[in-house]
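The following block was generated as part of the benchmark described in Methods. Ligand: magnesium ion.
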Amino acid sequence: MSQLTGNRVRTTAVKLGLPHLAEALSQYVRRADEAKMGYLDLIDLVLADELAVREDRRFRQGLRTSKLPHHKTLDAYDFSFQPEIDPRKVKDLATLSFIEAKANAALLGPPGAGKTHIAVGLAVAACRAGYSIYFTSLDDMVRNLKAAEIAGRLTSKLGTYLRPGVLVVDEVGYQPLERAEANLVFQVISKRYEKRSIILTSNKTFSEWSQVFGDEVLATAILDRLLHHCDVISINGPSYRLKNRLAAIERDTNAA
Ligand code: ADP
Ligand code: MG
């Protein structure tokens, strides 16, 4: 390859938005020579690499804007610790067909059961698949919407929770809400209904939601839209957080 042609290919690659080709041009040419690669194979390799680099960049950028509290995957979830969960149900969700169908997923159970872990694992998988993700606790969402409403910026703030392909609403039910607050939640749920997915976690059963939302009619209206298309996973198992702690405390007590 003449230096002149090489330089021109690099400049053109950059203009076309193919930075990896521009950087790795000499390696590609060397590899093609060594492996006696056909023209089509070389073009195939260059394009596949460029796409992989681009998707990886988009994935990492998506994780940064998602506000996910961590990036734990479903592979890191130990199903043997939670025998009540059918792993096939979680694996079904991990195919992301519920997101494709604009349906929802709910993870219910006591603290430490791994609700947030599974919700985040699904969100990370969805982010990798190209969906935009936004993670919030219910309380943070309500606080932000209330502040925006007071400042006369409710519509624009609602966009934060309506735009993402997948909204993760964590910790529904930790704090009871007032009627006006529950109404803000209703706006988010009803505007996303059948348009974009929600993954939520809650330590309360759905029958306890009327206490959370302080109003039977509003709670029913929220549940009606949320559950119309929703996969529910209930985890009624022990706390993973306490697993090691309790063993350590027992050891200390026995040693004393
Ligand atoms: P929850 O949201 O139900 O309160 P989390 O998902 O935050 O619980 O889980 C608490 C901690 O325990 C996290 O660090 C999580 O990664 C871990 N964890 C929970 N369940 C499991 C599990 N079955 N396998 C591996 N780690 C788990
Ligand atoms: Mg949690």
